[in-house]
Specification:
alpha+beta; 6-blade_b-propeller_TolB-like; 4-stranded antiparallel sheet; arylesterase activity; 24 strands; glycoprotein; globular; about 35% strand
Length: about 375
């Protein structure tokens, strides 16, 4: 009797599964997909071994100003005063532990996905030679902010077409020591910051590296065809700019002076995660924060989906970006690169227990300050203790 009931169960189950699957597939075919994904070929991620061996060093970090900040993406300091830009559109100063809003580029209300374009989203932030702040707002453009008075001055507006293309997603910037040139990234002319997951999943290659001359006020396009160009950093000798290409898990190098000027090559290929911001380290190398990890050994969702556009279409026909982000593992990773791009050391927090969604590692005075595009705090890691 049991084999008979087992058979009945199996047949019933399969019939039920088929009756549900067929309409679901039908509906899925009819639904619109917000993205038109392109197949992307990534190499097998590097093994997390040697200097990349998983550890829990990031768990030694302390959380500062918890629940007093919203997504402090990028961090700079003037002396011991810290500055950051937050998800509620503010540019914030932290002095002697006190938090103060010094400027806003957009205006409220803030807090929802719909509000973001008017609220503004300050991302990359840098200190210029006269201790002014240069800020890249994802929606509004490139600004100079006086940290004393909070006065803001627009340098490049996203309303201006650059070589016939819109600036839809200003991301990061790096400034020469004399303050003359600002190199900045526009991650896409199609997608905005609030749709960054669409940008990654579609594999859109309309990102650019641009240069703004503060004297002539001219904007030049230096690189095109980038897939989600993100963090940028001038080399200590200011002869090249490094550009993190997030979707491709790599760092490109563009030469701004010397014999190679105007040329570009690969600095680091096939990284163990998706690189977000990049900053100088005191040893002459670079700190790279990973916004997501590509575990090896392990399962990397990004790599699995990279050459399967049809699965991506199905996912985004049925699920919102917010829902999909919940499936991204909360693994935090910061790597230090040497001046030639080899891995020097890596700090991990495997489940994002202490430091989650790390977007930048900013070194100051023996500490590594970790910015985050989503967490309500800044983490500080004592480099003597790792």
């Amino acid at each position: 009797g049991s084999t008979y009931s087992g058979k009945v169960f199996r047949v019933t189950f399969l019939a039920l599964a088929a009756s549900l699957t067929v309409p679901l597939l039908g509906v899925t075919v009819l639904l619109d997909c917000p993205i038109d994904p392109q197949p992307i070929s990534l190499k097998e991620p590097p093994l997390l071994a040697g200097v990349l061996e998983p550890n829990t060093e990031l768990r030694k970090a302390e959380r500062l100003w918890e629940n007093q900040l919203v997504g402090p993406e990028s961090i700079v300091n003037i002396g011991d005063v810290l500055f950051t830009g937050t998800a509620d559109g503010k540019i914030i100063k932290i002095e002697d532990g006190e938090i103060q809003t010094i400027a806003r580029i957009g205006h409220g209300p803030c807090g929802t996905r719909e509000d973001e374009p008017t609220c503004g989203r300050p991302l990359g932030i840098r200190v210029g030679p006269n201790n002014t702040l240069f800020v890249a707002d994802a929606y509004y453009g490139l600004y100079e902010v006086n940290p004393g008075t909070g006065e803001t001055k627009m340098l490049v507006s996203t309303k201006t077409l650059i070589e016939g293309q819109k600036l839809s997603f200003l991301n990061d910037l790096t400034v020469t020591r004399d303050g003359r040139k600002i190199y900045f990234t526009d991650s896409s002319s199609k997608w905005q910051r609030r749709d960054y997951l669409f940008l990654i999943m579609e594999g859109t290659d309309d990102g650019r590296l641009l240069e703004y001359d503060t004297v002539t006020k001219e904007v030049k396009v230096l690189m095109v065809g980038l897939r989600f160009p993100n963090g940028v950093q001038l080399s200590p000798a200011e002869d090249f700019v490094l550009v993190q290409e997030t979707t491709m898990a790599r760092i490109r190098r563009y030469y701004v002076s010397g014999l190679m000027k105007g040329g570009a090559d690969m600095f680091v290929e096939n990284m163990p995660g998706l690189p977000d911001n990049i900053r100088l380290s005191s040893s002459g190398g670079y700190w790279v924060a990973m916004s997501a990890v590509r575990p090896n050994p392990g399962f990397s969702m990004l790599d699995f989906l990279s050459e399967k556009p049809w699965i991506k279409r199905m996912i985004f026909k049925l699920l919102s970006q917010e829902t999909v982000t919940k499936f991204v593992p909360k693994y935090s990773l910061v790597v230090e690169l040497s001046e030639t791009g080899s891995y020097r050391r890596s700090f991990h927090d495997p489940n994002g227990v202490t430091a989650a969604y790390v977007s930048e590692a900013h070194e100051h005075d023996g500490y590594l300050y970790l910015g985050s595009f989503r967490s309500p705090f800044i983490c500080r890691l004592n480099l003597q203790h790792v």
